[in-house]
Design goal:
about 45% helix, about 120 residues, four-stranded mixed beta sheet, Endonuclease, Chain A, 4 strands
């Protein structure tokens, strides 16, 4: 099963949608406040579109088919949230037409991420 998901994730990285490619251009190489994102990454038994593990943030892009499978999409979302992840969902069209707005929402989520290793109380400025 694990090997199957690794191969599936690899295939998804090679056949990204236009919206995924557009967003990846902004997320890759630590372009958003230095946070590292991975694309088509396995979490639990699902493959997420994008994840920043240090911020526990998942970004999912939904095409038209997702309008008919809302209940199906809720199941992994609840599992990820139970694992401590925040999940942002955007329509493909929003990424393609309003990319600045989408990036603003992602940046706000990253900005609200607690620092992974905060200073002890006596060492704060």
């Amino acid at each position: 099963m694990k090997r199957l998901n690794v191969d599936r994730a690899r295939g998804l990285r090679q056949t990204m949608t236009d919206a995924e490619q557009a967003l990846w251009r902004h997320l890759r190489n630590r372009q958003l406040s230095g946070f590292k994102f991975r694309r088509q990454h396995e979490i639990d038994r699902y493959i997420v579109d994008f994840v920043c593990t240090e911020a526990l943030l998942i970004v999912e892009l939904d095409g038209g088919q997702h309008a008919e499978q809302v209940e199906y999409d809720e199941r992994p979302t609840h599992q990820w949230q139970a694992m401590g992840y925040r999940v942002l969902r955007f329509w493909d069209n929003d990424v393609l037409v309003n990319s600045e707005s989408v990036l603003e929402v992602v940046m706000e989520a990253l900005a609200s991420t607690p620092h992974p290793s905060p200073l002890p109380a006596g060492e704060r400025g």
